[in-house]
Amino acid sequence: MVLIFIDQSERKIKKTSFEAITYGVKLAAQLNTTAAGLVLGQTDDDLSSLGKYGLTKIQQVDDAALNDMDAQVYTTVIAEAFRNAGADTLVMSANLTGKAIAPRLSVRLKAGLVTGAVSLPDTGNGFVVKKAVFSGKAFAHVAVQTPQRIVTVSPNAIRAESGSGEAQVEKITVAVPAAKVKVESRDVLKGEVSLADAEIVVSGGRGLKGPENWGMIEELAKLLHGATACSRPVADAHWRPHHEHVGQTGGAIAPNLYIAVGISGAIQHLAGVNRSKTIVVINKDPEAPFFKAADYGIVGDAFEVMPKIIEAVKKLKQ
Amino acid sequence: MKILVCISKTPDTTAKIAFTDNNRKFAADGVQWIINPYDEWYALVRAIEFKEKDPATVLHLVTVGAADAEPIIRKALALGGDEAIRINTDSHDAYTIASQIAAVAKEGGYDLVLTGKETIDFNGASIGGMVAELLELPYLSLATKVDIEGGAVRVIREIEGGEETDSTSLPVVISCQKGVAEQRIPNMKGIMGARSKPLKVVEPVAVDSLTSIEKFELPPAKAGVKLVPADQPEELVRLLHEEAKVF
Ligand SMILES: Cc1cc2nc3c(=O)[nH]c(=O)nc-3n(C[C@H](O)[C@H](O)[C@H](O)COP(=O)(O)OP(=O)(O)OC[C@H]3O[C@@H](n4cnc5c(N)ncnc54)[C@H](O)[C@@H]3O)c2cc1C
Fold it and tell me: How is the cofactor bound (chain A) (predicted)?
């Protein structure tokens, strides 16, 4: 049986979890077994509506003590639910929650872990999962050798598929241990699309000359319901916040569309964005290495080109 | 305070990524190796700062790898640290590596274990969490700020969609990323001093791996860029809408 951990942020279920559900449901079908979802803590969402992603059963540990995500506490509760359900495969998003808890669960359950799967496992002979390695410059096919396994799903690698249907929600009780870590405060972006979740990312580099010129980056991102990102020197110079820095030593993202404006396309930058499905480069230097990695490009001055692109998108959206 | 910093050896960020042996092995010939940037720039430098503030701090570095990892651990010692431990195994399975580190950490009785956010070759982001679980300690992942005062730990860390400030007490395992410290360049004194610092080699504990890499694969080459004239940006928007169908 496949158990799918459904992560919440501020009592809401996010896109990365819909992707994990789709992945888990398809994996269960592939393995000829059943899938169930697991939600920890209270929620503001209607869990039964998750049936539209193909889930028929969801278990919820409806305990306020689980509203804070503590990696140790979550590990204990998820491991218990996993054993009680008689599951052999645990699926969750490779989002930041997944990064905090999946390694612990791997040890707790003695279950082989593959982080950041980009496609469904090959179960023809064993259980082999494809994941990006060398910062997106290659893929590895990783065989899980244990009877129990954990797969975390790379954000934006699997498209959430919804139809109709309603899931049956069952409240379960699991002993919740006391947390050793105290959450002093939390600061979550409200209403904005987070960079990891975004399907469209508009990104700026040193070619934009200074933080005062980011208005056009933000405007285009907003028009396209996307997020903003930047190259490392831009974050180092504090033109933009650190969490926007993408690349080999920053965040790795895989949106459907990545628009790079005034970024040269150094190998370390490409490492964080090369799994984007479509890459657009706007750079005034025709020799900029980024054009080699791009699908579409304009050789031109960003300050002239961007306002016209924004106009054209506005027209299209009317 | 007794600190253990986990150091991994990774190919240089500009290294050509290719495979041999029927795509089963990384083609290491001619590749330059570096300290995994997250381990070096953030975990190690922050640990060195703790030692600079309180010289009674004991700072050990640990790496899991064959003898060819020694130049890398010496490089790390040139930045700082009292001694290094190399656990003599070449495994790529995160559970095996974490089990080795946990065994050393347990025996050494460390108060603080620091790792980088992830390695830039296998990108597992798993070692810190696994070590913490093996030691039954809290794990604060993806820290952007780490403060420790008299055993009290305060960390700002990246969470889904934002950040969180957490407090706990030692012992603890923390994975570090940008913000925790600033990159340092080793100086001559450090490089000379590193040569005489102890580098202990310990044999691995027996543990079964949970995963193995069957083969590698390179991504398909891009078809080539379609250039749109700079005076027709609306054509780019049309192509993205009608051809690429991304919005
Ligand atoms: C170990 C290591 C790790 C690294 N990790 C990362 C990482 O994670 N992420 C990262 O981004 N970098 C990383 N780097 C840095 C990387 O090598 C590059 O230096 C960096 O990506 C360059 O940023 P940039 O493209 O914004 O700036 P530049 O290289 O300065 O490029 C600016 C570009 O803007 C163009 N331009 C200028 N004016 C205009 C205009 N008016 N209109 C249009 N285009 C214009 C120029 O032609 C140029 O191509 C790393 C480096 C090292 C050594």
Answer: Binds 1 FAD per dimer.
